[in-house]
Amino acid sequence: MKILVANLGSTSFKYRLFDMTDERVLARGGVERIGAAASTCFVEVGGQRDEQTIAAPDHAAAVRWCLRQLTDKHCLRSPGELAAIGFKAVHAQGLTGVQRVDEAVLTAMEAYADVAPAHNPPYVAAMRLLARELPEIPLVAAFETGFHETIDRANRWYAVPRPWIEQHGIQRWGFHGASHRYIGERTAALLAKPDAKVISCHLGGSSSVCAIAGGRSRANSLGMSPQSGLPHNNRVGDFDIFALPALMRATGKGLNDILDDLATRSGLLGLSGFNDLRDIEAAAAQGNAAARDALAVFVASVRHYLGAYLLLLGGADAIVFTGGIGENSSAIRAAVCAGLDWFGIHLDGPKNAAAKGEMRIDAPASRVQLWTMPTNEEVIVARQCRELLHRASEPASGRAEQGA
Fold it and tell me: Is the pTM of this model over 0.90?
């Protein structure tokens, strides 16, 4: 079984092709600058990268070019060999888990376009196009919220009128589910402890912290929308909604304009003027006060959730740093772990400074293991697609017996 896992942007399509017999990555590639006069189509097979300039007016054309390259590289005999195209979808009204993409799924995602404005519109547009242009290939949406269905009400519900929760789905949904699922499973395997208590710190352009016990999500810093929780690169994170009327009066802006500011011009960008943590760290090192403030706010927010989740889990077996910031910023990791000796958390400075890839970075005295770890959201989505296709292929009587 071969499954293509897609990562969509408004003008990009990137993928990994898996052979699910052994979960090997056969190829990776994509198309950049979709809709421009000239797009770049690239593919990597066996460590060799090929590029060509193409015309890709939309995502369907981009996917067709990628499938052609995969056929030319003998990764596929034909596009029909694909069992599915899987998507790391974000949010949908009234839906979670893993879903075969149809009109109901697309409509549910469209209904939350304003809840996940950076994600849902490009995904819906591309999925509709692909469903129309490539009807022979099943499309599967693996929603990031699915992993967090195990969070109990105490850590999921807002203190709002109960009908808002029960009738309208207003609650802490949590996101980055594929990443946190992978980190939880991989860490438990490394520790040889299936019931491991893991705090997964996915820190990057979009960031969240997740409490995991026995492979199940117990809490996630993201809430109803991907704009919540930790500060993100340009999204606000936690914010008091009662500031909105004051902002509207002070700025003369309407609600939609203020929400756009919070979703696109806030977070680390809003605090520092820089959109990339590497630039913020460089500016802070040169004495830029705004950059230093941004780093301090980010670290304080990570530590806030880290402390809360240590309390929730009753301690931790491991704290794992993943994502672009989590894996690559030794300074952020050091700041997050500073002064936590009384929790039994001791970071090893030299190990932390030298960390690359999957590496343990705690000192010998540490009761809690500390790791840097590349995540693998794509393999999680591929597995979820495979499971959905297998369930769909079971005889109806078998499915009924299994569910009984």
Answer: yes
